[in-house]
Amino acid sequence: MMRQVATVLVVSGVLGLVGVAAAAPQVPRGVLLEARAALAEGRFDDALVELGTIAAQYPGSSFVALWYGHAWWAKGDRSAATAEYLRGLELQPDSAPLLIAVGDVHYEIGNLTLATEYYERAITVAPRLPIAHRKAAAAEIQRVRYREAIAHLQAYLELQGDDDIEALNILGIHQYIVEDHDGSIATLERVLQIDPDNGKAHFGLGMALSGRSAEYDRSLFHLRRAILLDPTNPTAHFLAGRILTAQDRLEEALEALQRSLELSPDLTDTAKVAMIEGVRSAHYRISLVYARIGDRDAAHDHQQRFQELTRTQADLEAQAARIGALRDAATAALATNNAQEFRDAVAELLLAAPDNPGALTLSARGSLAAGDLDCGLAAAERALEIAPDQWEPLYVYGMLLYESDRYDEARESLARALRANPVSASAHGALGAVLVAMGESREALAQYRAAIRLDPEQAVHYLNLATAYQKLGESELEAQAMEAYRRLLRRHP
Q1: Dihedral sign from CA coordinates of 437, 442, 446, 448
Q2: Model confidence, pTM
Q3: Using CA atoms, how far apart are residues 171 and 151, in angstroms rounded to an integer?
Q4: Is the CA virtual torsion 129, 135, 137, 143 positive or negative?
Q5: 116 vs 112: CA distance, rounded Å
């Protein structure tokens, strides 16, 4: 039978642990000046020593926890930083800076949905804090939720002032993407009022105007300014070529389009679909220009290249869709304990993407659930050969090693997983189980508490905590943890 260890992923929310002490008095003014100066000057070790001392003096200060976390983050220890941020939130759950800090951890890991949730919570408690809107916009852009990002950028600019060129450029481009061309044009014109030589704004404005035949000359002006400021932008050359073709300025069009191709990599075999589209379109436009000037052979060559890239694009899109569908099917089968459907989907997935670390990790997860440890270890080891620093294969590998009673190796793999992703409640819980198995129940407590901070609604974390307290003979704390476990079971039967 598989051991009872939390295997859920992170959920949002940081609530109090059992028996958390009340916050201590506020830190006197000026106590952190030396530590903050050391951080600003890059003397991270000095800052850590100073903040460690202050944290011991003021254990109930969320403000000290915030800066202690910042020092660990600057030092490169994300696990220690996250522990301090979460400790601070335990003391002050409505601290916008701490909510943003935890959101930043999730953002760095790639947990974009959770990052957004923390940024939104920061906005709720501090609606006029510009940086929270700015960070939420960045996360929403990564999630391809452009309208939500635009709303946050507009709120940020309203609060911060409309002279942040970088934010205005990002806003203008994404207004163009959602087809708010008038808004995009107005935003990018604002950038050029502030900085007339801003190449990004010239390019964005040229792009926004390029779809309007009445504005071709104006668009071409801005595209040429963009090219002057950044001659290596293939899209600017391509858009200029497209406009010049429409204006029947064929020699200039041919020069611009060919330059666009020269600046683009050879995308036949390995490029992303979106990148192929740009090169494919350039070949198509060039073939039209050559046809119009009477060079049929050259037109034929570029038309043939266009057709080859069209097939490549279609093949890549079909392959990506197939892999996504197989991954979804395997994940759903694993969640519903349908072993045969899982095996079938994973077999097809590995045939389609044999060197995909995500597919290999999913296979290892299935083997772990089925108790086929040797097969799971082989799949996880192969995933780690390809992606040695990805947290999820490290976590699954650690779980497989734990189930194989290879505790020292499991401990190392799970510690590496947590260095890569310190906000994984499941990895903290798993490391706690390994430590208990190694007779280090006292050290396991910190891991179980971290799991609870990250995932307070998962009952098994409290059961694990109670087990550790029981092994340590701390019956009162064991009883508190068991009561929390039973309470959550009643709430989520």
Answers
A1: positive
A2: 0.80
A3: 9
A4: negative
A5: 6
